[in-house]
Design brief:
Structural class: alpha/beta
Distance between the termini: 87 Å
Radius of gyration: 25 Å
Number of helices: 14
Order of helices and strands: HHHEHEHEHEEHEEHEHHEEHHHH
Largest sheet: 7 strands, mixed
Strand order of the largest sheet: 3-2-1-4-8-6-9
Strand content: 5-15%
Shape: elongated
Number of strands: 10
């Protein structure tokens, strides 16, 4: 018995070394990350399955388009909303008290049968302008379903409205479409595209299992009765942005929500004009997420995804460093770790880029590992800025 214990102690002393422990941790994280990569393919699989499915009939639908001092964009893009292949639809443009030629331009289009426009009432003090505009547009709608967007976006296809309304079935109250940035340029454009696609990829796959954590308000369908039943945006009337995020987060669940990823239903959104405008958008979302009720499951999943990326990389570095410094024959362990890293990198790139290709996002290869590691930095920067910002900035100033 004593000999057996001494032999076990000798084996432990021989194999339970720092470099072997580091390699074992790296192997465990490698396996976990390889399995998680299947989740990155889930959205692409859903999109491909929806393309093969038989599409339902298009339901009557109203499109609410917000505009504020964007007359040039109205002239350029409004016809893309009006020129849709759909048997029964209307477009309601809500002018948020523009100071340019927006109202005059809309009045000149009175002859168009599908177009209606509304203007915010003067002196509204009890609700933020965005929420008031959305509420006015939804209440004006005469159709059963209402699709929310703004004039800074444009549909990718004439079949956009037909295909997304075909997903508005009797058992659903919310339908989410996909939104992507158009014509990204340079490093900044690629960063905006990647971060938007990454967050939507996580959120839309989460929707199919539980609820909506957040929603792109540029391609979002509500059932009008659902909006009125829950009293619209009554929970946070003074919050300047994020009203749609809060509403769908509060009242969505797996049963009443659908995701539409048909290729013609994508909405194209203008890239942020500057780094500052993107940072401001992230800052306002940090305030919005404070008011979200359903958050624990999604945030835990999101945090684990970001943390796993960093832990995997650190374990790889530790394995290579310790094997090269502490072992007499470092190459077998280092080569095994390097081969495993190469296999994982190829598999992860394949899974993520397959989804990006399906959603017509720019594909990333050599820059993908860097982007994945920068997510933590971008989130921390936005969180820090939010903590240092006066919270009055995010609410309507009463006069």
């Amino acid at each position: 018995m004593t000999d057996l214990l001494e032999r076990l102690q000798g084996l432990l002393a021989e194999y339970l070394t720092m470099e072997n422990i580091a390699f074992a941790v790296f192997s465990l994280l490698w396996l976990t990350s390889m399995i998680r990569c299947f989740g990155h393919r889930r959205l692409a699989n859903l999109a491909l399955r929806q393309r093969r499915e038989k599409r339902g009939e298009a339901v009557p639908i109203s499109v609410v388009v917000l505009a504020e001092n964007q007359c040039n964009l109205l002239r350029k893009r409004l016809h893309k909303f009006l020129d849709q292949t759909h048997p029964d639809f209307e477009v309601i443009v809500v002018d948020m008290n523009s100071q340019d030629e927006t109202q005059a331009y809309l009045k000149s289009l009175d002859y168009m049968p599908h177009l209606h426009y509304r203007t915010l009432p003067d002196g509204a003090k009890d609700i933020s302008p965005e929420q008031l505009a959305l509420t006015l547009g939804i209440r004006t709608a005469t159709k059963e379903w209402v699709l929310l967007t703004n004039i800074a976006c444009e549909p990718e296809s004439r079949m956009w409205l037909y295909n997304i309304s075909s997903r508005c079935t009797a058992d659903k109250s919310i339908v989410l479409g996909y939104t992507r940035y158009r014509n990204p340029h340079g490093w900044a454009g690629m960063r905006y595209c990647f971060f938007s696609a990454w967050q939507q990829m996580l959120n839309l796959t989460h929707v199919r299992r539980r609820y909506i954590y957040r929603a792109e308000a540029t391609n979002l369908c509500y059932r009008k009765e659902f909006f009125l039943q829950h009293k619209g945006f009554a929970r946070n009337t003074t919050l300047l942005t994020g009203a749609t995020d809060i509403m769908v987060n509060t009242y969505s669940d797996r049963g009443n929500t659908a995701v539409c990823l048909l290729p013609e239903t994508t909405m194209l959104k203008d890239c942020p004009r500057s780094r500052q405008s993107w940072a401001t958008e992230r800052l306002f979302f940090m305030e919005t997420r404070r008011h979200l009720r359903k958050k624990t499951t999604y945030r835990l999943r999101y945090a684990l995804s970001v943390l796993l990326t960093w832990l995997y990389t650190l374990s790889l570095v530790a394995t290579l460093t310790l094997s090269l410094l502490l072992t007499e024959q470092p190459y077998p362990l280092a080569i095994a770790a390097a081969v495993m890293w190469a296999v994982h990198s190829i598999w992860r790139s394949n899974c993520i880029n397959r989804t990006f290709r399906t959603l017509k996002e720019p594909r990333l290869y050599f820059s993908l590992p860097l982007m994945l590691h920068l997510i933590a930095k971008w989130d921390f920067t936005a969180w820090t800025r939010h903590k240092l910002t006066n919270k009055k900035l995010f609410r309507k100033r009463f006069v």
